[in-house]
Amino acid sequence: MSATPLQILDTCPTIDRPGLLVMDVDSTLIDEEVIDELGEAAGVGELIREVTARAMNGELDFAQALDARVALLKGLPVSIFDDVYARLHFTEGALELIGTLHAHGWKVGVVSGGFHEIVDRLAEDAGLDYWIANRLDADPGTGTLTGAVRGPIVTKDVKLRSMRAWADANTIPQRQTVAVGDGANDLPMIGAAGLGVAFCAKPAVRAAAPHTIDERDLMRVLDFLRR
Q1: Domain residues for 13?
Q2: What is the active site of this protein (predicted)?
C-alpha cells in the first residue's frame, strides 16, 4: 500500500517540533580540514591532503587513513593548535543555523573524525549541545605530539551511535533527526536520520545521500525543515 501525502509528511523532520541536528565538523561546520592544516605545519601538507581526499571519498578505510596521517604529525608542538584554530572559519550560515534551531527547542551536536583539541573550542564558540572527536596523544615532557591517537577512533559507526544516543537522551524520534556531512564516514548517520543531507560532498557521498546541498551555506538546511 502506498503512503498518503500526510504519512510522507509525518515521517520528515520539521522545525516546529523539537529535534536533533548532527553535523560533521571538517568541511561542514567549518570550511577547513584540520588534519590538512596540521599537515601544512608539519611540512607534509600535500601528502596528508591526498590521503584525506581518498578517505572522504570512501577509497580508504577511515581509521587506517587517520593513523597514517597522524603518524606524520609526530614532533609537532601542542601549541600548534592555537595557530591552527586562529586560521579556521565557521562555514557560512553555521552559527545562524545553530541559533535558529536552538530558538525552536532543538539540540545540535557534532561528530568529528578530527580532534578534541580543536573541536572543544569550536563547540564552545558555536554553543553546541554535544560533540565527540578523536584525541591526539602528546608527550607531557616535551609538549609535542607522539604521532598517535589516544583512545578509540571516531568511525562512521561511532557517528551513527552518537546521533541515536543523543536523540534517545532527549526523547527525540528518529523522524526528527537531521544529519549533515560531506564524507563517506558520514553516510551511515545520513542514511539513518529523518533527514540526511550531503553538504558540498564528495561525489560518492552525493550519489548515496537522500538529499544534497551544493551551496556552501548551512542555512540551506532550513529549506528542508520549513514547509
Answers
A1: 5-225
A2: 24, 26
